[in-house]
Amino acid sequence: MKKHVGILAILLFGCYIITSCSQKEAYDLAIKNVKLYDSHSKMVFENKTILINADTIAAIIDLSEEFKANEVIQCQGRLLTPGFIDTHTHLMQNYGSDENIAPETIEPKDFGLVRGLMSHHYLSQGVTTIIDMGQPETWMDVTLNWQNNPEPEYPNLFICGGSIVSDEDRRQPQHHIEVMGPEDGRKKVRDYASKGLEHMKLYRKLRKPDMEAMADEAKKLGITINTHTDNNVVTIDEAMEMDILNFEHFFTVTPSILNYDEHWKAMNEKYGIQMNSSIDEFSAHMTYFFSYIKENPEFETKLEALFDRMAAKGASISTAINVLASSAEQTAFFTSFEYFPIRRKPMVSYSEEQRNQLKMAFEAMMFYVKRAHDKGVKIRIGTDCRFGGKAMLHELISLHKAGFKMEDILQIATINGYEAMKLENNYGSIEVGKKADMILFEKNPFDNYQNILSNKTIIKGGKLFVLKKSIAYDLLDVMVDQGPEKALVWFEKSRLNKAYDPLNANELINVFSELIGTGKIDEGQAVYNLFETNFPKMDLEVDGDLLTNGTYALLRNNEIQKAINFYAFSQSNFPNTQKTIALAVLIETLENGIGKGLERYETLKIDSMYLQTENEMNGVGYLLLQLDKTKEAISFFELNAKSFPDSWNVFDSLGEAYATDHQKAMAIKYYKKSIELNPKNEYGKEQLKKLIVGTK
Question: How confident is the model at residue 546 (pLDDT cuts 50, 70, 90)?
């Protein structure tokens, strides 16, 4: 009897095994036969298969093990890495060539456009997660909903709200949010926490007491603080004392070891450069500082010591490498902090010798990036430019050229950023239980670093991502590279290509805005005609800032007649948009002389359609100096001084203009006035001293 019972038990157990195997459900997706990059150990494990259920990694098995899956991607030993993260982006940059054209709110009709741009710029390149480091607060309800409800066709988004600054007596960009003191700063942190934000950005103009209060409140509420410290207001060391450990942009290490007020001018004189007149020249200045440091043993010692302190604290710093590489023409893919005007090369006015010096300065910067990494500072990618996905890939190439090993580069692109943003529980490595966001490389970067740019299969949220090609966005590139005539021929041929989605009205409006906002009249008109032909029942509205900035873009390139023509085009086609006094008077002055310009000013200053700001008037003055129109520049600075008699900066600029015109007595007069209004104007004091010595 016992024997029969034993046999029965064996039979029942066998039936259980058979039944269990037959009832075992198949996985949703299998990624079969990969070389798996482990972002923690930096090792590569061959012959692995990743099994996914829904949006999560369910199992990792050897190739020899059996499995059942509803869908299988056969990989033939291709490299699989975690999805990349860009820890410093701006949705406003994605929206267009100039952040000023971004709308006050994101309307439901534009949800697809804005999220589609995120996929177009980032997810298509393998960047599965982005951190927005500053947006209008009026966007937050929408973007928080996207953060809390990720979808496989878009990158994961985590927002910081606005870029926080201390109160200033000037108009702020729409994504800069002022706090009125420490307690107001604490309240802002609490407000953001109550909305569900996990990250905040404290910007470079935030004063130390405000930063201390906000950092303390954030620590209590579990919010990760990221800070940009490059204005000699708060140093990296001071921020680390507040337990802030995430710093934005590698170039911001320089003001933590030297004072810009003292050394900016000395650096300019050393390399024979002027105050930056374009955003690309600003990037070049930030780059030049690394040669300035490398050639000064005292500062190099201080920088090395700073890296040691950052490593000891466990600090991280983002890169923004490709933007600086672009200003130095040391990358194959041009990007800028402001992609305005649309261009393929930097707006810099340097001699061949200065360009060589800039190249060496970029090499010095990359040397220090490697030194920081070797000392244990956590480097993470933060591109801070519109085309962040492609820029990130080229940043990884720059790291390789600087001596980084590929296993370190991939760690920087993945787990370093996720850990700094405290997102590593769900992302950043290929492990059971983590989200299935991965990159499958067509060619292995370990074989050749250029394979970083190779085609990729993107798995996002457990789903195979397929980019929906936009004919409008490709039309933009063809317009810029080949001109309107060839672009229209290309468009008519390409719209028959089934690889493209149908023409989207909002995307075409976005393309028109970029072209018209950068002064490309013929290209913009061609797109405008396409819009009217394809969407005859829709209105195409234009923001006045676009037209203003487009005219300035042409002037910065010294295309004066084209700027005058473009301004006329703007006034004729879009008469009801907001206008500025500075630009209207500038155009009149360039066309008909200073006298007519002054007459135009008297007429417009009482016209409510025309806006006047101190900063724009001052900027026009410097633009005229750049165009070697010194007399005209003086007239603008004088108008500005009459309009804003309490501004020390306006009188400082007026003094500079008179000095440029070799009118020393007048220059001395206005530098003295500037210093009287602002006794801390050290640059003005230095210029005044030189002028007085020169008159003796």
Answer: confident
